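Quick one before lunch.
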Amino acid sequence: MLALGLALAMIANDDAAAFKKPEMTWWKEARFGLFIHWGLYAVPAGKWGENTGYGEWIMDSARIPVSTYEKFKDQFNPTKFNADEWMDLANEAGMKYVVITTKHHDGFALFDSKVSDYDIMATPYKKDIMRQIADAARKKGIVPCWYHSIMDWHHPDYLPRRGWETRPALGAEFDHYNRYLHAQVKELLTNYGPIGVMWFDGEWESTWLPKYGTALLAQCRELAPNTIVNNRVSQVRQGMEDVMGASSGTQQAVGDFGTPEQHIPATGTPGQDWETCMTIGGHWGFNAYETDWKSSTTLIRNLVDIVSKGGNYLLNVGPRADGTFPPQCVDRLKEIGRWMKTNSESIYATEASPFDALPWGRCTQKKVGTGTNLYFNVFDWPKDGRLVVPGLGNTPKRARLLGSRSAVGVSRDGANVILKLPGKPLHEAASCVVLEVEGTPTVYRTPEIVSPGNEFVDMIRVQFKVGEGMEARYTLDGTDPKPTSPKVTMLQIVDECELRVAAFHGGKRVSDIAKRSFVRVKPMAATGAPGTQSGWMMTEYKGNWDRLPDFDSLPRSGSRSSDTVAASADEFVGRRFAGNLRVPFDGIYEFALSSDDGSRLVVGGKVVVDNDGLHGAETKVGRIALARGNHPIVVDWFNKTGGAALSLTWGPIGSPKRPLGGADVGH
Ligand code: FHN
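Model of the FHN complex:
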């Protein structure tokens, strides 16, 4: 575990080359942080009028005009706020860093900003919260980190305005707001000592262009090259569950870690850093009427689950306006702390599990000398005391139960290691068994059969994914693979068969057997004509439909050639694209038809994709075996009202698809 003093020193070290990814060891080893959402929204505490369901979004959700909402600053006087107490509780819970809202979407700054009067100095309290948090955190060995919202419902130059607002947008200059944002970020990164993470948020609105995100990241890199920046500095998230943000077309994912929110990904992504942020109750900001509190068991198991997938857990508290934490949060943080006191060795500075999902709990691992400690956090304690560790090839050295001197027996049963556990678990949430093994983990995974399908015309390529150091041995006659069966990682199947494959290690089968049958299919004969010119014949129709009509029975409103299938921007319109598909060789072809509203693809008279109905942009996929030659092909589409979209891509299964048009079709 990197000494936090060293971590803090490294964060302060400003000789790092600007714009390179900062050193993240301290953050990865920390694994567990405290999120704090605090601001003026704590004053109404979730209630506005008769509604008591609000949180930190109360200004927008309850449509409170800026001039009314601002008045909360006159009531914000957290006389019971004690940063040392907050950091002591974070320490007790086993949290290694704290991320606190310096400014949320409402635009109010908890710090003394020289570029804004809408800050803590405008309240009766008049003391800089960030200063107190930074000082107390460092004093207690916790890394201080800042949350800062890009979206700002208060600043006159922020756009877009809330839809319900009466403040005119005319005259607002987003670039002025952007300069203000940069000025506050500069204050946050230069006035409070070394900061661990800049945790941006509110990046999703259309005005936050990629250029702004890139520039904001560059400012952080320049001012604080060792401060980690999350991926919300720019617009890359694909929703709350997205881990890192796939490239959104206009830009690649940016920032140093992904931020799935209120969600734990099914698996981690090797080489990708991420942190799940989550509330203890149902709101980020304080709600005095909260009843939906997660249990301590749930929170502990979330922490174990996240870390077993290589992620960090950022757990949120919404303090009250008086500066105290809700007791329900205090109780849970203390209970988590009691669990961490015994089991934190299985959390801090560990790496993701080497196993696929374990039915009874989770695993983390840590290199120790030439060996590895495997930490098995057991959720479901075996009634017979027999814990089966599946497919572990390493020589087990010894096992122990964290927090207990009880003996843990270790034996081998084929590819599995059996741990004999004492009668009862130590904690109902999770009890941790440490198994020390030689070397790095050798896990016998059942091989994964990777193929573009189970059907083929002439041949289908099959790949086997198998654990490192393992051999994939297979049979094609439905018998179980033996040590003498052939071993490959890639196979071309040309006859119908039942494939069976297993992992072998040291001449022995060490995994279950994966099975898959492959069937030959007869391609549809080519019944079309080559046509006299490339492209589609597009015919247009007018009408008001909820589903595709029978265009053959309707009067046409015009026809022309078209290189690709494409929607019209009009409403109450239908289109038919007809031609002869030029199939280059016998094979199974996959088609992806995307449309708003409905659409359908027919090849050789057979419906291949049915994407009919009233819906937004939606893609459906279909396959068909086709012989080399020309095949009649028809795409029908309609748009009732609103948005319109239509596109068609295709390709042989197992190959990337491309737009179907031009030379692919003739009429
Ligand atoms: O809109 C905010 C929300 O209020 C809260 O701050 C969460 C925490 O990550 N972030 C945004 C929603 O993604």
